[in-house]
Design brief:
heterotrimer; A alpha/beta (318); B alpha/beta (298); C mainly alpha (274); B: alpha/beta; 22% strand; globular; C: 274 residues; 67% helix; 0% strand; disordered N terminus
Chain lengths: 318, 298, 274
């Protein structure tokens, strides 16, 4: 069962201008529900564009984006068609129905934002409130939740992302870079999205900050069983946290599968120009030197046991 | 060993609160010598004081106490004339983190010219410097482009060209690769290496990427405003536990060698800074043991 | 905004584009004087022809030029109405019995005013914004105003501020878009509700935008200091503007046109403005 399905999706920037550029080219892709999926590709491969399509911030030039089999870009006419037969609309005058449907479309669009939470690159730029608490509460407030519910959500989100309670009353602008990033992440998690989409969540953070962020995301995903999509350049991070991987280049999906499958194709990855984890590079080097170690290694732990087994027995033993 | 270019003795710096009351020490007595032509990486997690250190060397910040000597000129313990500050800044250039925030002009070549223009470099030398700097970072084709249309790596290379055009002796890179994608980072790192090797420019690269630090001749690890470690990449990466304690991780390959040694495999652990070195270590260990195995079999 | 050059600058290769920006500023000033020198029908016909000539020389599509008049349509309409109804003359066009009196002089006045404003806008547009990049314009103004430095007016600093503003407009535009998207993703609603509600909805965009602009300003200030910026004193310039003979000829032509208009006022025919 796919949570998200892209059905022959294309996206063209600046159509009809001299700057026209095809960012996505007939992409069909299914994202498994309840999994962490990493999307890798270099700048301009179309991965960031794809992200914006998922919660309706942008809509595809061609094709459909399906969330639980529902086309998120259903046009007003289609919504109208679907609503016409429903009781509340049947008895309305034409203009009132039109108005009601317009409101319905806006409502669906906003609801989509709450269902598919989007964490942009360098999300700390989005902080604006006086206190960390209020900032995290911005999303839930827009959802129209009750005071108690908002409070519960904020505290829950703060816990997921490891924000200590004494930080909640501070101004977000007084925090360190890593803390700001976590507050921004909490601001989206507080909406309890079914799908969490993140663009380079750890960009520019030091190893400690990076681990905090990924632990937070992983914690949220495991506890709520939601679907997580992470767009990143860092294969090493992806290898560590993701179940599935999508490799993109030139607006197309080049590879899709679980991490093991993807990392076993080292030469394909480097021909796309991606940075392979150092440890996978090492394995390739050892194989070149005539040692029979397995190739689909992408974490240090796996490498330790594989190399150890090889050195002790002289066999790769996949 | 070549001459010492930067010499610091017990260099300290404290930030003062906006209301002028509380002081936050950011740097606690750093004593270090950096030689001419060296490529030094300064490592530390965010807030360790590594960026403060860089800002002191460039006189953006003034040390609260301690001694700072750059190229025979002592810069502490007296009032500096404007002339001296300018002289220092042209000798010690700085490239910042955010590529967008350090480009001043709306055309690439005019931005590169900004520094030398400020120094009053006359024509035709000015033109030669700008063209030379752009060629050095391989951006000559973009001389008439607008900076905001360039990629992150390209912007950062333009920023570097702007510094080179002042003909500095030393360039400090203050996390200049942190906001770039892998290809941009590679572009910038290659440029840094080229400046160090071919132009003999002293390089200080402030970073928290271990793979980047591995490219340097020497690594300084700063933690809580103090100099924690000072040595070659091999020496630093050999001390994985200390690095871990201060929130840093050795590169994956070095970690592998550490783990293998820990699990009882007696592999040599002295040269572990690059992938090639580590592969070599494992290969030679394998050759040695399999030889022994054969001897035993015989 | 994306992908569109800032301002009205229209990139093309034309005689007008190639004239030195300082010359163009001078020509623009002279041309403004010309439009006010015009007094009679012959003069205005000459003026209209000159505007057409300018558009042709600049290779700017006429459609684009006319579009620039749209924002001032209201002013044009307003002045013509005022002129038509408020001018008192000798030739009454409306019947005596009407309360509203329209004179032929009023119609003429309105026509001339409309012509004057239109030509003024088109002319300055062609000389300045269409054929000169904002940055070249800044440079030109710095050169032309540099005598003011003697009376302690910080001309260089103003020019520097202009340059930086121009440099950062695209960056900040992009940033605004980014922040808007981020807040929309958190369910912010900018389009519905009362005016007050909509104004309030801007806070989540404006606060981050200001914070980021200030951070950028701090960074830029340090970066400029690091690159030895210390004001305009002792600075050299990479691209120095050089007058060519053709620039002087162009200025002289506009000046000659002005003199011509002056004489047309005396010897021309048709209705004459009082």
């Amino acid at each position: 069962m796919y949570k998200i399905y892209l059905d022959h999706v294309s996206y063209i920037y600046g159509q009809g201008t001299p700057f026209e550029k095809k960012a996505l080219d007939d992409v069909s892709l299914g994202i498994r529900a309840g999994c962490m999926t990493g999307i890798i590709g270099h700048t301009g491969s179309g991965k960031s564009t794809m992200m914006q399509l998922l919660n309706g911030l942008a809509s595809p030039t061609e094709g459909k984006v399906l969330l639980d089999d529902y086309d998120i870009n259903s046009r007003p006419e289609e919504v109208l068609e679907a609503c016409k037969s429903l009781p509340p609309y049947r008895n309305l005058s034409k203009s009132a129905a039109k108005k009601a449907i317009k409101a319905e479309v806006t409502r669906r669009r906003r609801e989509l934002c709450f269902r598919v939470g989007l964490v942009m690159q360098y999300p700390e730029y989005q902080l604006f409130e006086e206190t960390v608490f209020k900032d995290i509460a911005f999303g839930p407030q827009n959802m129209g939740l009750s005071e108690e519910e908002i409070k519960a959500r904020v505290l829950e989100a703060a816990e997921f992302t490891g924000i200590e309670s004494d930080l909640l009353d501070k101004s977000p602008f007084d925090l360190s870079g890593g803390q700001k990033r976590r507050v921004a992440l909490a601001g989206v998690i507080a909406m309890r999205p079914e799908v969490l989409v993140l663009d380079e969540p750890a960009a520019g953070l030091d190893p400690r900050g990076r681990d905090f962020i990924f632990e937070g995301i992983s914690h949220y995903q495991k506890t709520t069983g939601s679907t997580v999509l992470i767009v990143s350049h860092s294969m090493e991070d992806m290898a560590r946290y993701c179940d599935d991987m999508v490799v993109m280049a030139n607006g197309q999906v080049k590879m899709h599968g679980n991490c093991k499958e993807v990392f076993s194709k080292v030469s394909d990855l480097s021909s796309i120009g991606l940075d392979i984890p150092q440890i996978t590079q090492l394995m390739a080097l050892l194989r070149e030197k005539g040692m029979d170690v397995p190739q689909d290694i992408y974490t240090v732990d796996a490498a330790v046991s594989a190399v150890k087994r090889f050195l002790e027995t002289g066999k790769g033993g996949v | 060993m070549s001459d010492i270019y930067i010499h610091t003795e017990k260099l300290c710096f404290s930030y003062t609160d906006a209301d002028g009351k509380a002081e936050h020490p950011a740097l606690n007595g750093i004593s270090v010598d950096i030689h001419e032509g060296e490529y030094v990486a300064v490592l530390g997690h965010n807030g360790s004081g590594k960026s403060t250190f860089a800002k002191l060397l460039n006189l953006i910040l003034e040390p609260t106490s301690g001694k700072l000597v750059i190229g025979d000129v002592e810069l502490t313990g007296r009032e500096l004339s404007d002339e001296e500050v300018l002289q220092l800044r042209r000798n010690v250039g700085m490239v910042f983190q955010n590529p967008d925030n350090q480009l001043v002009a709306t055309i690439v070549e005019e931005d590169v010219a900004f520094g030398p223009e400020n120094l009053g470099v006359p024509h035709p030398e000015l033109r030669e410097r700008v063209d030379g700097a752009l060629a050095a970072v391989d951006m000559s084709d973009y001389a008439h482009h607008e900076p905001h249309r360039l990629s992150g790596g390209q912007k950062q290379r333009v920023a570097i060209a702007g510094i080179i055009a002042m003909m500095p002796k030393c360039i400090i890179f203050d996390e200049s690769t942190a906001m770039l994608d892998p290809s941009g980072r590679r572009e910038v790192l290659n440029t840094i290496q080229m400046l160090n090797c071919e132009h003999g420019i002293t390089v200080l690269n402030i970073t928290h990427y271990m793979n980047e630090a591995a490219m340097a001749d020497r690594i300084l690890v700063i933690n809580d405003g103090e100099l924690l470690m000072d040595g070659t990449p091999d020496e630093i990466f050999a001390q994985r536990e200390i690095l871990r304690r201060v929130g840093l991780e050795v590169p994956q390959c070095a970690a592998l060698i550490h783990e293998l040694r820990k699990s009882g495999i007696d592999i040599d652990g002295t040269k572990i800074s690059t992938v090639e070195d580590c592969a070599e270590l494992i290969a030679s260990y394998y050759a040695k043991t399999s030889l022994k195995q054969e001897e035993q079999d015989v | 905004m994306k992908g569109v050059a800032f301002g009205q600058y229209y990139p093309a290769v034309s005689p007008m584009h190639r004239i030195d920006p300082r010359a163009k500023v001078i020509m623009a000033v002279l041309y403004i004087v010309c439009t006010f020198l015009c007094k009679n029908l012959t003069g205005f016909i000459a003026l209209l022809l000159s505007a057409i000539l300018l558009v042709t020389l600049s290779h700017i599509p006429l459609k684009l030029v006319l579009r620039s008049l749209r924002p001032i349509l209201f002013i044009i309409a307003f002045t013509s109405v005022i002129n038509i109804f408020m001018t008192k003359g000798e030739t009454l066009l409306t019947p005596e019995s009407w309360k509203i009196k329209i004179y032929a002089e009023g119609i003429w006045n309105a026509l001339f005013m409309v012509l004057r404003i239109t030509v003024l806008i088109i002319g300055t547009g062609i000389f300045l914004t269409y054929t000169t990049t904002p940055i070249a314009l800044t440079d030109a103004l710095e050169y032309l105003l540099s005598p003011l430095k003697k009376i302690k007016i910080p001309v260089h600093d103003f020019a520097m501020m202009m340059t930086i503003a121009l440099r950062f407009i695209p960056t900040l535009t992009e940033e605004t878009e980014k922040i808007m998207n981020a807040q929309k993703a958190r369910g912010a609603d900018f389009t519905t509700g009362s005016l007050l509600k909509r104004a309030k909805a801007l806070i989540p965009i404006l606060v981050p935008l200001f914070v980021s602009a200030f951070n950028r300003a701090f960074d830029l200030a340090s970066a400029m200091e690091c690159r030895c910026y210390h004001g305009g004193e002792g600075r050299t310039r990479l691209n120095v503007l050089h007058y060519r003979a053709v620039d002087f000829v162009a200025i002289l032509l506009v000046a000659a046109f002005g003199v011509g208009l002056f004489f047309l006022n005396r010897y021309g025919f048709g209705y004459t403005l009082s």
